[in-house]
Amino acid sequence: xxxxxxxxxxxxxxxxxxxxxxxxxxxxYVDKLLICVVLLSxxxxxxxxxxxxxxxxKSFAVVSLLxxxxxVLFASGENNIIKPFFSFMLKWEGLFLGxxxxxxxxxxxxxxxxxxxxxxxxxxxxALAGFGINYRAAFIITAAxxxxxxxxxxxxxxxxxxxxxxxxxIENGRFFTKLKAYPAxxxxxxxxxxRKAQSASVSMDSRAFGAFKTRTWLEKPxxxxxxxxxxxxxxVFSALAIFVNYFLL
Length: 249
Description:
By secondary structure, this protein is mainly alpha-helical. The protein has helices spanning about 5-10, 15-30, 35-50, 55-75, 90-115, 120-130, 135-165, 170, 175-205, 225-249. The longest helix has about 30 residues, at about 175-205.
């Protein structure tokens, strides 16, 4: 599903790709928890402005607790949260490291839908070609993006079919019951993916895809003034975040 927000549609797809790449570098480059929280808050605010819903919060919360708990237990450090308990020593350094990892993972999860759910496969392929990437490689990348919503819809259809047959354990069952029910979901999903890949391959071969080194595009992307302005503001924001991270904190 594409969220046709008027604000994001004004920008060139190449601007979105550059924004995601730079932001990904930035969130991994800074090493202060406060800056990571600010960056995560900014990307979450952008998602709210674009009206792109945040999904699977419960699953991510469980993963976050496991990551933080493992870092608190096993990370090295000198400052104990509480007194040593048997052979375990709970460390403040592990707590901060776990929170940093969670902020970075959450930022990555929130970033990608800004591109995939506001731009179609053709727009992404055209933008990648505008960067000088070969159109065959651009097609492979966009095909991977395009398969994500297809698999999501097919997985939902399979679970609905299982419910009609008296199943539905993946959504409503206990943990081990869900674990046993997953092969019934994964096997038809993988087989369906293999069939789709085979039909796509035959279709591409019948149209001589990749026979020529270059190809023509219906419309050539052109970056406008607001695209350059957005990139300039974002680069200033990134430089400010790095400056504060390394010189003020």
